[in-house]
Amino acid sequence: MELGVTLTEALTALQNMALPTALRTSRWVYPLVNAGHILGLALLFGAILSFDLRLLGLWRDEPIRPLARILLPVAVSGLSLSLFTGLLLFSVSAAKYAATPLFQVKLLLILAAVANALLLRRAADWTLAQVPEMAMNSARLRLAGGLSLLLWLAVILCGRFLAYI
Questions:
Q1: What does pTM read for this prediction?
Q2: Cα separation of 22 and 30, whole Å?
Q3: Most-buried pick from 25, 73, 92, 99 (CB within 10 A)?
C-alpha cells in the first residue's frame, strides 16, 4: 500500500518535530522509552495470558469474576503504556514505519485483539460466567481466549520483526 504525498509529508513533519528528534539523538531516552514499551507489553501479555488460559479451561475451580477484576485493569494499563510508548517509538521514523506492510499488519492485529476483548465483554456467555453458580467455559469463551492469545502473540512477533527492518 503506497502512502499519499500528503500523508507522507505529515509523517515526515511528525518525525522532524523536537520530541522525535530528541528520541533519535539521545543516548538514553530512546532506550528508556523502548524499555517502557516492553514493560507495557509484559503487563499486557502477562495478564492476558493468565486470563485467556482460564477462559480456555485451565484452573476451572477459579472463578472468572475475581480474575477479571484483578487482571483486566493490569492488561488495560499495559495496553495504555504500550500504546503511548509505541507512538513515541513510531514518531522516530514515522514515514518509514507507516509504509511498512508489517507495521500495517501489526496495527490491524492490535485492532482485532482489542475488538475481540470488547466483543467478549458484550457476549451473553461473559455475563453468565460472572455469576459463580453459572460459571462455565462455553465454546464462545474458549474461542475468545484462544483468539486473544494468538492475536497478541502475533502483535508481539510483528513488533519484534519490525525492529530488524
A1: 0.84
A2: 8
A3: 92
Query: In whole angstroms, what separates CA 28 from the centre of its chain?
Result: 25
CA distance 126 to 45: 20
**Cα–Cα distance, 47 to 50 (Å, whole number):** 5
- Find cell 515526515 and name the residue: 12
Cβ neighbors of 34 (< 8 A, separation 6 or more) are 85, 89
Is residue 5 over pLDDT 80? no
- Please, are residues 138 and 125 in contact by the beta-carbon 8 Å criterion? yes
In eight-state DSSP terms, residue 135 is -
**Cα distances (angstroms) measured from residue 74 to each of 59, 92, 162:** 19, 28, 26
Q: Are 116 and 147 in contact (CB under 8 A)?
A: yes
Q: What is the mean pLDDT of the chain?
A: 87
Using the 8-state DSSP alphabet, how is residue 19 labeled? H
Arithmetic mean of pLDDT, 103-116: 97
Residues 6 or more apart from 61 whose CB is under 8 A from it?
none
Please give the full DSSP string across 28-89, using - where no structure is assigned.
SHHHHHHHHHHHHHHHHHHHHHHHHHHHTTTTTTS-HHHHHHHHHHHHHHHHHHHHHHHHHH
What cell was used for 58?
485451565
